[in-house]
Amino acid sequence: MSGFISARGGRLTLRRLVIVLAVCVAICAIVAMFAPLFGIVTGRGGRSIEILGRDVLEAGTPAYKIFAVRLPRVVASLLIGGALAGAGCALQALLRNPLAEPFTLGIASGSSLAAVLAIRLGIEASFGGLGVGTAAFAGAIGTMILVAQLARIGRQLPPATLILAGVTISMFCSSVSVLVQYTSDFTDVSHMLSWMMGGLDAVRLGTAEWAALPIVGGLFVLWTYGRELNALAAGPEVAASLGVSVVRTQAIVFAIASLLVGAAILLGGPIGFIGLVVPHVLRSIVGPDHRVLLPASIFGGAVLLTLCDTLARTVIAPAHLPTGAVTAVMGGPFFIAILIRQKRRAALWGRG
E strands within the chain? Predict the structure, then answer.
């Protein structure tokens, strides 16, 4: 099995890898170019300014200025989508569970609690949105460390206990967040709820550039672990028989996924379901080989979140929907569908 088996039972060829990556890059580039051109905003006197048209290329025009403001939002959506989908793909292999993704492990609740506390303690007033984002980043990393420590048995990270620990921490953090909101004034509660829904309204290009390096670097490192993820997806015993250092690989993949999710939350808040939907769909298209599936998921997540964000700012324009609400509406039914499918498979397996 040193040549890793593709979905069709053959070895992964360089030609297939190049074709899949070329298609993914092309689709991502097209979406990235056209996404900033869609939508309207309200100008002076309540007049709607349409951003479509050649004026967007002429410096100094209203459309050009709107494009310059919207471009950071598109860049951020590409980075966040790629980070969440890449982390979700890796965690699904690590836990051998198609329902596993960053936000089912309690990360969203932990980061939200840290952000809520930051707003309640006045960090937002002192440092602005970056202070809240940094607190959320720290909360995400801290939550992942806590979940890993709770789930660890010896040197192993059993998937079942990891998910159970994530659910437990998620419920605890959600309860504490409610208590903090209950003791806050109306203005702070409004800020808390706005942040917890996830959105890209306040993203600045400098912040996106700052987060690009750890996200791109982390995703590249995950890709280099494609062989190990293939083996871990078959179980730790199989992975060990193939020469994979199971404990070391679990720790590295888990840590990188945590950093990716933390950076994504810093940029746009808790935006869920991207890490669940994208790898699951692409697995049926490009196959289970993570040397192909992981990069395809990264580009797929970037495309999907950019499309969701474009929809969020155009469906009721000139008002904007929270991007996290759009992904939740899309991902909720998908999550239920996966549960039903897994339930049917389990029933058929029991009959057999």
Answer: 40-42, 48-50
